[in-house]
Design brief:
single chain; alpha+beta; Neuraminidase; 2 domains; 3-stranded antiparallel sheet; 4 helices; 16% helix; elongated; F-box/kelch-repeat_ARATH; BnaC05g03940D protein; Kelch_1; F-box_dom
Length: 184
């Protein structure tokens, strides 16, 4: 559009968001980090639940191996995924934002269930904690969940059914909790 004063409004044509998401959903997750560098719009779309839902609908989901490692000389553990590229197997750091990143407590229990990883209990400053955190593997965001009924560390976590995560035993302070002390 041309104005009377000679100024010209220039707008780049944009694809509808649904079309962009449809295209991105078909791209391997191993390429998502590169694609997020294309533009702010692409970066914001790469980590939306809508993209994951479309990938599921199209049958394009991929299993990843998540690792939480402390690599010296860094004192704090970091989260990684194992690269899916067949000829380039390497650890890829999980994207994190400082405001939502959670470091798992020492001696915490972890279990993968559904679309994420639950981190339960552990020791913070030598004391048992009852905290429960959830890493959403679709968006790499953290949530704090309701605390457990008992603070504990070094417990055993697992899935007994498709809808429940169970935690059994461990230590609360200085005493060992027997196998009958569990939570769901």
């Amino acid at each position: 559009m041309s104005g009377c004063d000679g100024e010209e409004e220039t707008k780049k044509p944009r694809l509808p968001e649904e079309m962009v998401l449809s295209c991105l959903a078909r791209v391997s997750r191993s390429e998502h980090a590169s694609l997020s560098l294309v533009s702010k719009r692409h970066r914001s779309l790469m980590f939306t639940p809508e993209l994951y839902n479309l990938r599921s609908l199209f049958g394009c989901t991929e299993n990843l191996i998540y690792l939480c490692l402390r690599i010296p000389p860094h004192p704090n553990p970091r989260w990684f995924t194992l690269s899916l590229k067949p000829l380039d197997r390497r650890l890829v750091p999980v994207r994190r934002s400082c405001s939502s990143y959670q470091q798992p407590p020492e001696a915490s229990s972890m279990v993968a269930h559904g679309c994420g990883i639950y981190i339960m209990g552990g020791r913070i400053g030598g004391r048992a904690t009852s905290s429960v955190m959830f890493l959403d593997c679709r968006t790499h965001t953290w949530s704090t969940l309701p605390s457990m009924g008992v603070a504990r560390y070094s417990a055993v976590a697992g899935r007994m059914s498709c809808i429940a995560v169970n935690l059994v035993g461990g230590y609360c302070g200085v005493r060992h909790m027997n196998g009958r002390s569990g939570e769901r």
